[in-house]
Design brief:
This protein is of the alpha/beta class. The chain has 15 helices and 17 strands. A hairpin with a 2-residue loop joins strand 3 and strand 4.
Length: 414
Amino acid sequence: MIIDETHPLEEIMVWGEPGIEALLGQLLPQTRSLFRSYYEVPKARGEFACMSALIVNEGVKIIRAKDATAELLKSRVIPELPDSIRALKSALLQRADFYFENYRLAKQNDLLNDGFDLTPADVYAAVKREIDGILEQDIVVYGEAGALRLNYLLSLSKPWPLANIFYGRDQSQMVADRVILSSLRWNIRKPEVKIYKDALHTLGYGAVIIDIREGTIEGGDVAMFNGCCFIGVGARTSLSAVKEVCRQIGDSLQAHNIQLIAVVNARQEEESNFFISPTSEHMQVMHLDMFWIPLAPNLVMAYTKEMDEREVVLVTQQKGRIITERLGSFRNFLNSRGVEIFEVNEAEQKNFATNLLNLGNKKLVAALSSNPRVNAELEQRGFTVKYAELTKLVDGYGAVHCLTAPVKRSVAQT
C-alpha cells in the first residue's frame, strides 16, 4: 500500500544489479541503448550492492525481481536455449561482435560527443573481458542452469538486450492498493514489462496488478503525494494512459480520497509521438522524478524551469465518461495546496538532485554527494541524508529513485 511518498518506507522492490545485458548495451548507440555513451558495468554492480546495503541498514526490506525471475525460469521451457554455459558465452560474444561491427561509427560519434578518450574498440574489448567475470558471479548466485537461463532471457532472447531493466521503478508502480503495470515507450524496454509481471505474480502481487492497454506510462512518472496521484505526461507517458488509469482504478483512488492529477508538458508529449528516438532534452527530464520529488508532507524539491512548463489536469470519471479539467500551472497548483517548493538549478537537476529515495521521517537516500548546496540546505531543514554515490549507474539517466519501487509504506506519517 502506497498512499504518500513521504510516509515511512517499509518494503521496496528492485530488479537487481546490472548484468551482461547492460554490458552489451554499451556497444549500442545512445539512440538505441538509452544510455550515455559508456559506463563501467562492474563498478555499477558494486554501486548497486552498496546502495542496497545502505537501504537495508535503514530497516527497509528489499525484494528482488531478478531473483524471482531466476526462480520461475527453473521450470520454464525455453526454445533455443544454449545447451551449456560454454555455448551461452559463445552466443554472447557473437552478439557483441555483431553490435560492434554494425554500430561502430555511431558509437564513435557518441564517445566523442560525451568527451570520452575511448574508441569503440576499447569498449568492445572491455565488454568481452567483463562477460566472463559477471557470468562467474551469476553462476555463484544462481548455479549454472540458473545463470544460463537468466542470461539467455536478458541478453539473447529478444532483438535487443534488456540493458535498462535494472531501473526497476519504470515497469510498475504501487498506487494505493494496486500495482499499475507500465506500458513502456521505447522498443528496447518494452519486453521488460512481461518479465516484471511474471515476477510480481511470483512475489504474490498477481491479484492487484492492473494492465494499461492504452497509451504509454512509465513508473518514474507516478508519485503519490498530498492527497494526489500525480502522473507526469510528456516524453514517456501519455495523457491517454492517465485516462486509462482513471477508468481502471479511479473508484479505488476516490475511496482513498486521492485525486488523479496529470502533470502535462504537451510539447514533449507531441514530439515523442513523432520522434524515432529520444532527444537529449527528453532524456534529461524524461520522467516526473527527474525534476520533482516530494520531501515532506508540505515540501517538494523541484527544477522549476521544467516545472513551469507543466500544466495540471484533473482526471475524473463520471457515469462512465472520463472528464478532464485544466487547473493551471503545476507551481500554482502546489502553492494553492500550501506546498513549499525547494528549488534546484539546472546543474543540480542534471546531477540527479531530485532523483532520491524518500525513506520517510525526514530520511533520504541521495544519488550523489556532489550537490553541496542542495545537501547543505536539506540538512539545515532537518533531513538526514545518506549518499549512495552512484557515479556509474547515473550514466543510464537514472539514479536512486529510478532504481527502487516502493511497495509498502506506513499508512500515516510518524
